[in-house]
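queue> pop job 88
queue> type: inverse folding (structure -> sequence)
queue> payload:
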């Protein structure tokens, strides 16, 4: 069963681009956990939450690299692009569209709270 992640007021407090990036990772982890578990089950192997978190972080890092952005010094515009690409990837992995759209809209709340560059 897919779990929904919700943005909280705490997520927007003292918001920096790095905190927003880490929030994206947490959101993507929640949204994709079931997808990764299902993929591993098809391969008849067990996957821990720690392994999924590591895979999600690597996927986010890869998207930053793909767009030529700095994972360690993200900008708001980079984060917006990363979220778009992650949503597309999630759909291609078989994540249901309602789950993708829900998490994308929750992250947009965070990005809208981030000061402009």
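queue> result:
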């Amino acid at each position: 069963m897919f779990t929904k992640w919700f943005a909280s007021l705490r997520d927007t407090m003292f918001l920096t681009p790095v905190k927003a990036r880490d929030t994206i990772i947490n959101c993507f982890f929640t949204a994709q956990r079931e997808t990764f578990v299902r993929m591993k089950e098809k391969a008849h192997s067990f996957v821990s939450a720690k392994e999924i978190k590591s895979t999600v972080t690597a996927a986010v890092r890869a998207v930053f690299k793909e767009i030529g952005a700095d994972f360690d010094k993200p900008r708001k515009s980079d984060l917006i692009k990363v979220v778009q690409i992650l949503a597309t990837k999630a759909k291609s992995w078989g994540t249901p569209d309602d789950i993708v759209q829900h998490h994308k809209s929750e992250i947009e709340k965070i990005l809208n709270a981030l000061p402009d560059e």
